[in-house]
Amino acid sequence: MSRKLFVGNLPYQAAEDELRDLFGEAGAVETVTVMRDRETGRARGFAFVEMASDEDAQNAITRLNGYQLGGRALTVNEARPREPRFGDGGGGGRGFGGGGSGNRGSRGRSEPRW
Questions:
Q1: From 85, 93, 102, 111, which residue has the greatest number of CB atoms within 10 Å?
Q2: Would you state the torsion angle of the CA atoms of residues 60, 62, 65, 66, taken in this order, to the nearest 10 degrees?
Q3: Burial of 23 (0-12, 13-18, 19+ CB in 10 A)
């Protein structure tokens, strides 16, 4: 079992310290990361908590899945590995059709009009 947990359905006001204290009741906590919107800094409603051992992680899942925090029932389960998304990794993230070269003209037509 992984020691990294996904915590979903968080109230938007939830802070790292609050989660560290809550999960600390279930075992030793290594890290807490509340995911935030890049532009506004507002919490996105989920976090990742890494526990010190597999036993602590399992105890946290058992004790805190469904726990009411700020009027919301938390979802706590084992975090899945991040799946690769389009543009991640080796290709430099440009994707398909990068660049503006070619004889397309100022309007972007690919064939003559006539």
A1: 93
A2: -130
A3: buried
* The pair of three-digit structure tokens given for residue 72, joined into one six-digit string: 């919301």
Tokens of 93: 């993230």
Instruction: Tell me the per-residue pLDDT of 56-91, one tens digit each, with 9 for 90 and over.
Output: 999 999 999 999 999 999 999 999 887 887 775 555
Longest dimension (CA), the chain: 75
Task: Identify whether the C-beta of residue 15 lies closer than 8 Å to the C-beta of residue 33.
Answer: no
> At 19, which CATH number?
3.30.70.330
Residue 105 located in a structural domain: no
Average pLDDT on 30-47 reads 94
Task: Supply the pLDDT for residue 82.
Answer: 79
HEC string of 49-82 equals EEECCHHHHHHHHHHHCCCEECCEECEEEECCCC
- Average model confidence (pLDDT) for the chain? 85
